[in-house]
## 1
Amino acid sequence: MSSRHLQLGCTFRYSSLAPTAAVFQVGPVDQPRATLRDVSWSVTGDLPLHHYRDLYGNPCTRLTLPTGVTTLTYAAKAEVPDALDDIDEDAPETPPTELPDDVLVYTLASRFCQPDVLGGQAWKRFGHLPPGYRRVLAIRQFVHEWLTYTTGSTIATATSVDVFTTGRGVCRDFAHLMITFCRALNIPARYVHGYMPIMDVPRVEAVMDFHAWTQVWLDGRWWDFDARWNAPRKGRVVVGVGRDAADVAMVTTYGAPWLQLMTVTCEEIQP
Amino acid sequence: MSSRHLQLGCTFRYSSLAPTAAVFQVGPVDQPRATLRDVSWSVTGDLPLHHYRDLYGNPCTRLTLPTGVTTLTYAAKAEVPDALDDIDEDAPETPPTELPDDVLVYTLASRFCQPDVLGGQAWKRFGHLPPGYRRVLAIRQFVHEWLTYTTGSTIATATSVDVFTTGRGVCRDFAHLMITFCRALNIPARYVHGYMPIMDVPRVEAVMDFHAWTQVWLDGRWWDFDARWNAPRKGRVVVGVGRDAADVAMVTTYGAPWLQLMTVTCEEIQP
Amino acid sequence: MSSRHLQLGCTFRYSSLAPTAAVFQVGPVDQPRATLRDVSWSVTGDLPLHHYRDLYGNPCTRLTLPTGVTTLTYAAKAEVPDALDDIDEDAPETPPTELPDDVLVYTLASRFCQPDVLGGQAWKRFGHLPPGYRRVLAIRQFVHEWLTYTTGSTIATATSVDVFTTGRGVCRDFAHLMITFCRALNIPARYVHGYMPIMDVPRVEAVMDFHAWTQVWLDGRWWDFDARWNAPRKGRVVVGVGRDAADVAMVTTYGAPWLQLMTVTCEEIQP
Amino acid sequence: MSSRHLQLGCTFRYSSLAPTAAVFQVGPVDQPRATLRDVSWSVTGDLPLHHYRDLYGNPCTRLTLPTGVTTLTYAAKAEVPDALDDIDEDAPETPPTELPDDVLVYTLASRFCQPDVLGGQAWKRFGHLPPGYRRVLAIRQFVHEWLTYTTGSTIATATSVDVFTTGRGVCRDFAHLMITFCRALNIPARYVHGYMPIMDVPRVEAVMDFHAWTQVWLDGRWWDFDARWNAPRKGRVVVGVGRDAADVAMVTTYGAPWLQLMTVTCEEIQP
């Protein structure tokens, strides 16, 4: 399969009044559909960075922001297949009795995804559909139509119930609502945060940002579903997966440093 | 240190209309303060049981409930120290910059614990107190006084915000609210579910049940805090730990079998 | 127009530990489509009853429940037209600039009806429809399909947002959700509580109870809409109207007497 | 009693894309403690104003904002007593059995005040206190300490439950929370919106605005309580009263005109 090449990365500039612990989830690692190279981290004052894996196996980077201004930049090149997300409309659901042990956690309620509250909606809308990939497509379609993408529409504590009610959200909310419906039907679903280029699609966004979408477990593997775009895409590079956005934050700070600047890049380049 | 001995266990009887996947978290394993022996599992029809560890390392037991009535019984003996929960009122908090990587997850928001919502309350009440074990005691005392223990007062979806509002809860709610305040202050805290005997305390409860409490990370280790009882106790046997009750359910079923009977035992015996 | 005749009424039996103020809204008065006669009130010990009108003009009856058991019975005959609810599918909406002063209050948010929260949903679903009676029918149809009638599904504090989320409710919830959408579109809507016979419809309910529905202001008058039944009905007898169920409670008690018994009657009789 | 004199008023400038109905509640009328004179209304283009009273007897002013920019100015002089709010610490509560019929509505739940949810808190904190004015003072003191006055802390849909949880609010939230606790105890309480000068108090506010406070029914009359300031004040001029801020909005518009400018004046003048 032919490949394409991305330049990706981000810069964060924080101003701190006191030393502040911070964890970044911005640097992907090699994965089935993306190979990384020329990875570089740079940080003001050459502060020590500590790289580790979290509970879900996601690569994380810790540092202590000193008093004053600190700028951290991550950059890498990624080689990705020149192909859309995998699709198999005939992929069956795996009954709960057959799910792998380590997948079960993705059937449970979490901070932003409350299948225990929206279960009635899920069963009323999707409970009668034949199980399988196409049912998950129906969920994706529904969420895509239900929510109107609205920049700035949600606050950090907004849950899937909140956005179901208001009908507005950003990409994380599309992911949360889709996850919630899947879990209510006992279909494992998880939250994915990563880079996604505008590649071979009409250039609809002025400002590039990180993206969030959903992975659903069907027929023995995870499949990408993107309720915000409601179509397969090319070039996803996963940074982290988890139960919802509470698990996979770009940056977690223990304190309240001022974010002065944040830029994100993910563009196609020549190899 | 001298020991004491417990007989513990539980029985669940379910009636299912269709084969139903179920996961039980009822069988503890050896732990720093409890040694298990004479462990037995029995289940109607000698159904196969599958034992595994979840994301947090908790022992879990899976089976498929067949159509009809299934009874599962777990029983074991536990040797526990004849000693109250460890206490060190001078134990310091660990600043976030020094926390172990794998403890960080217990500072985040989760399904039932929303430090992102109750942060203002936490800082107003406890933010000015000197960091350390005594501050956590102040939180325990506050939660103990804030909530009135009320059987049947909460529904399965009640969060720490809900019980903070109503002022009523059961042991899981005491644990959730205490966890929430700790996390808001950047103190790692987790939910513990297990067996706890009525041992050397006035016999206040007519019916024995599972119990839930809180563990807080201070000075390089986890400490038990029990906001429901607001005092150290003897004989805790941990079954599972997690971010909150969503992670550590006694039983998770994928379907809606009818729970006909549930009994729990945890009594002192002669060795 | 030919008439039909109803025997209606109710009995409440309370047990009080202390004298308790109580207000009953159970006795209708003459209205455009119902004439009352043979009205009787009876109460244990011939306690004094005080009849008055509330803020909305509804007939209310106050008494003080003494310590012990008190039984109150209301009974009356009503003559109602042998005709279904009025319908005019061509009735136009009245623009807010033309609404009567005293109708404006029914465009505002209230305890159980939050057009300020569900406004996005209302405009997305109904904003593009031509204004008028048929748009209100579309709302009625939507609410009827959205909510599954489920006895015991809601708690006393459940709002239109709550039942929109769960998809389940009883008649008051159907009324609240319909009111909410209308108000979000600047269409005045109010809550009605009253008696409704099972008359000329298949006898679908085993137990008779009070009923709640919606009135909507169109073309200079109020029209009945019943989202629970989603069809015109015969024989409605209005007891009270208000912004929502908080305004129009069958019984409000200032204290917590034990309701031992409640029966409601509304049956067709020969004149 | 000697008098003092205020110049009060406000200006609103709206830009509308279409003719928009609007209701203003900004013009007080004579009341026990304030006499109005030199009242003037001016509006762009000399648009017709329609004055009426709402359900609660509040003076309201309707107009239709035409397409384009409209400026409305209200101004008046008020003579007020040179005296602090009335106080009688020995005033008794009136038992619900003795409350006037038309006061009962102020014991019920409303859009922003949910005594049905916060009842447990109210009874736990204030239920044991002797009934009367001093108990209401204890509520005022509690609310004053519980909420931190925080400009911009609440959104328009924030209820008393929401601000109880976050611990932050503006003057309307202080009023709502105090009302909620009173009603939970069966003490009638209502929301007041009006003008209040900075008179004989340290000048703590840079920008003058409307103010909201609470009136509580004790001993046969309404008394002013101001949980935001937690002290008696001089010079209140009531514009409107109601069950909560949903009833008493400065401006209600049926559409979404752009508020370009709003200024409020309430200053002492020489007679």
Note: The interface with chain D takes residues 19, 21, 23, 50, 52, 54-56, 60, 62, 64, 95-97, 99, 101-102, 104-105, 107-111, 114, 116-117, 156-157, 186, 246-247, 252, 254-255 of chain C (CB under 8 Å).
## 2
Amino acid sequence: MTERRHTRKFVRTFFTSPTAVEGEDDSAKMIRRAAQLRGMEAPDVWVPDNEDATAPSMRDEGAQNIIDVVSEHGADFPGEIHPRVVWHRDSPTTRHQGFQRMLEMADPDHGAVDHLDGFVIPEVGGIDDWKKADEFFQIIEAEHGLEEGSLAMSVIIESGAAELAMRKLRDEMGKPDNTLERLFLLVDGEVDYTKDMRAITPTGGLPPWPELRHNTSRGASAAGCIAVDGPYDDIRDVEGYHERMTDNQAKGMTGIWSLTPGQVVEANKSPLPPAEGSWLLEADGREVELTTEDGVEVYEGDRVSLEETADGYVLTVGSDEQHLDEDELADELLDMLSYVPSMDDIVDSMEEFEAAKEAGRGAIAITRAATVRIDGIEVEVSNDRMWDEATYQAVQTPITLFQDVYEHRPDQHEDLAELYSEDVVERATNVGN
Amino acid sequence: MTERRHTRKFVRTFFTSPTAVEGEDDSAKMIRRAAQLRGMEAPDVWVPDNEDATAPSMRDEGAQNIIDVVSEHGADFPGEIHPRVVWHRDSPTTRHQGFQRMLEMADPDHGAVDHLDGFVIPEVGGIDDWKKADEFFQIIEAEHGLEEGSLAMSVIIESGAAELAMRKLRDEMGKPDNTLERLFLLVDGEVDYTKDMRAITPTGGLPPWPELRHNTSRGASAAGCIAVDGPYDDIRDVEGYHERMTDNQAKGMTGIWSLTPGQVVEANKSPLPPAEGSWLLEADGREVELTTEDGVEVYEGDRVSLEETADGYVLTVGSDEQHLDEDELADELLDMLSYVPSMDDIVDSMEEFEAAKEAGRGAIAITRAATVRIDGIEVEVSNDRMWDEATYQAVQTPITLFQDVYEHRPDQHEDLAELYSEDVVERATNVGN
Amino acid sequence: MTERRHTRKFVRTFFTSPTAVEGEDDSAKMIRRAAQLRGMEAPDVWVPDNEDATAPSMRDEGAQNIIDVVSEHGADFPGEIHPRVVWHRDSPTTRHQGFQRMLEMADPDHGAVDHLDGFVIPEVGGIDDWKKADEFFQIIEAEHGLEEGSLAMSVIIESGAAELAMRKLRDEMGKPDNTLERLFLLVDGEVDYTKDMRAITPTGGLPPWPELRHNTSRGASAAGCIAVDGPYDDIRDVEGYHERMTDNQAKGMTGIWSLTPGQVVEANKSPLPPAEGSWLLEADGREVELTTEDGVEVYEGDRVSLEETADGYVLTVGSDEQHLDEDELADELLDMLSYVPSMDDIVDSMEEFEAAKEAGRGAIAITRAATVRIDGIEVEVSNDRMWDEATYQAVQTPITLFQDVYEHRPDQHEDLAELYSEDVVERATNVGN
């Protein structure tokens, strides 16, 4: 059985750059520029794109560009490099082209293969189509004297057939006639998926496809792969990109496709815990972040108002008015409040739980307290959350991700230290091990 | 391997009509009336219903009514005809009845089979149950000297088992012991599905079942079938029916069950692009369509307000106030606006992209500009969207649907020309080919 | 083929209690107290928990506690008893421990097995892992001279692999080498599932996982099992617990994990129809329950207002104003209103439909009428809903659930009679049979 070789546990960013255009050499410049990205602007996985981003007539030239640029810059590039080649479940000709370009790029005589971590195969169909691609990886490795499984295979899920194939991976991997253990990223490709599903929206915008993203995340979980969401087209809409990533992360999909170095920066930071904790107040269906002033959390919106009366308080949320005494008020606010812990907070809580476990206790209460000010009135709130082993492990995910980043991306150490402080970074790299 | 014979690529409407009632012959009239529907009132697929819409004791009479009406009117009916027979995964007796009625209706001596395109099988279970139905189709075709696969088989998905079976179609089709290539429509049946899933809602209304609809759409995509949503019971609620169809279309389910000729009209038009484009403004979680007055797009709601000040503008959305200069205002509005293109717009954009491709360019910017008026103040906004081959193909779906309608439904040509103009219809039938 | 033995058709509550703690014997008390719960405080399924709720070092003592308490109190406990043992898809050692503890607890010499209905296996993986657990059940039954299949097996779905395994149950059950027909509950475990899926939320709260719950419900439907949702951690948040249960029930998941006797009471009552019907008015995206005063349904919110004018009415919903005549007003209100039927109402409607069916009619209209008062103005509204056999059967689910409760939980008869009246209880136990 082929051994798994890829060492990343998380991939935050999947960044495609074009490799050739007709006429001018803009994209030859773009691939060269991509190869020189560093720090937060550099993706975890860089995908020199010899498929959609390169005109069909320029793909041979594009493959040569990839070889040239990867040979020259690959050794210094801080992320992994996985070129995308052409492939289509319905076209043997396209598949043959994809095979030939991979064979070419992986040729040791051309100097790029030492820096290539794998290839990305788009437009796959059912599992047997995935096996055809895997077969070409086997041949390429054999022809070029590379170790079996040394080239990772990532796929773009952009058909209903491919979505269905993911559920079979766990059963198919490890069979003697394939080396599907080389599978690395399962990347959603919503534009072509929308076409394949023949979906229509009034504005021509992409449907949200929540079920596809769930199924990709689940498929990755069950088969030891990593799930990555597709591109977010509106590159000016930073807030929308963040909302999409938050939604993805709640589905277990911590990576996303990035179209620009600006998107790479956002996506590299998004799954990391914030440097500062914050309180959120949910009122009338919306969440508002409170502002910290001298240690007091201040609500500045106008959906919620608070008034002191002779015998207690009147709390107004939207059009609902409640008359409450002091304890009831604190309880009511507690229901409306939630806390977003900082990296420091998470590390603190984990350390506290570890110490308790060491001392023989299986569960502890982690307390969060705050003074909240609404319309000038201050209220003390305090919340206990029970932590047991399961809580500890579920909360650990962002820390594990951080540690994976820290191990594989020394070029980001400086940015991380600046974001969190040296001390927090050091404790975060050690906790939970 | 059995060849696929059904030629429709899209089915907008699945219209069931009862075939017999006890006592009076109301439903004998209803089936006769259904057979004479034309134009937008006529469905793409007409389903004379010998199951739920016919009392158990009247089903033999109902089958005879179908034979009579289809023999008489079938040649002139503009859509396809697929009677529904009885079937149940748990009852061999019911399945045998379904078989016998299909055998009867398909008997060439009875004159109806020339106009029958297939049968609809309700209440299927796992894939082996689907194969039992397919076996009866094989026998019927052999007994009656019909070509193998000439009768399409459609199924109603109304159990968890049937939902699970859809994912296997791609693997099972083409095996030597079945002729499942005859599969045509995968139709959700939410009333019985709700029963099978044992779901409860407070009002007794149907749950929305978004995952079922996704899985049906995906199953259709992976197996070359067509997905159709179940009935919308509240036939007075036209707005709700439209919202359901819009939601379905974003899932790749462009067809829906219709219970009345009025619903057929709505459902036939729903997936077609509008005759006029329109701008939508999203404010405070709601979308409002702007009104066009002398080429200006006017906002008439009161969630958004705009005021000019000495040094710029104040834009108020709900309770949020922003102070902006002219460029910032245009940017902010652009984020809130989206454009619903007309058929004409889509054809224009496709032609523009085709010309660019012809000229050797792989991507172009499609611009939409408008003058928007809020509280008497006019703002120029303009948006570029990058189109590449993938965009082009994803946007093409409504055009492909239109072309499918145009090819198969000459009885709707007049309505379409009236809706869009002769010129737009002609260009829309030619673009993309 | 092993026969199915478990007789419950629905399980509302899955209540875990710890079985041992280190040092003090608090949890020995807790298990003893749990064994003595009765009526609405007693769960349908009680799970003495020898996994997460018991510290690793105390699990042998915990297993002994279970044997002691079940031997002593099991005969009188009104629900089923299914202890949870340790298991993990990735650890043969853990699985071996789980096996040994089950073997011990099921030993007839220890006196508990007569009151044990089965065991709960957490942390299962793919279907082959489920079969390993099933194999241990087979061995235990054979070793102890118990009838094959007499011990039910329930599993906790807390990995992507287990989620995928559920879809295979229908195909795997009944194969000669397993006795998976013993499967009883499919219970979601969202904390560990979140960890396995590596999902992240800003606050550390659990993602909603709608697709998992759908898939569990569907898996149960297709394989004749019962779906149960995981724990709701915030035990103070009764409203949130109710919303979660309502959402689950619309997915066909009528059972939920309960962490306290208080949650058991809420969860036991939640899927039962209310004692009193009520009207809901949906306005501006929110539903408000109307207050009944002297037979009139009164709206007391301020999102909707109504005014009489010289020539009709002005209905204002949020910021939308409509001028309507009397009939239009009634129609408009009807669209906004929905009725939540009481147990009595449902029984009435079912009896009415049964009588009609007896008299040879396949469909009838069930009418709901009310006088609604808004801003002092009274409006008569009346709604007909068509009932056919499918409606009847879909609406029957809460009655079937009630009948299942009534049959298996004599200790709740008094509570039910108090809630609904003796008369309604009697009619509800008889209708539909």
Note: Chain C touches chain A at residues 21-22, 52, 55, 126, 159-161, 163-164, 167, 191-192, 194-208, 210-212, 233, 237, 301-303 (CB under 8 Å).
